[in-house]
Amino acid sequence: MDRLDLISRIEDARQLLYRMHMEYGSLLHPEVIQQSVVLDGLINQYNRVKVGKAMN
């Protein structure tokens, strides 16, 4: 997966997290937490790609 694709997926996940937070009214709702985990994973993946490119 390339950086631009990851950036797009991160933005989509971020927007979904925001909408879920507004819908459930809490950052502690299990579905909101799960979406946060998804977003964190995408951000971590992006950082790994970014660091990998910097090392080359």
From TrEMBL:
Transmembrane segments: none
SUPFAM superfamilies noted in UniProt: BAS1536-like
Cited InterPro entries: HLH_DNA-bd_sf, Spo0E-like, Spo0E-like_sf
Protein name from the UniProt record: Aspartyl-phosphate phosphatase Spo0E family protein
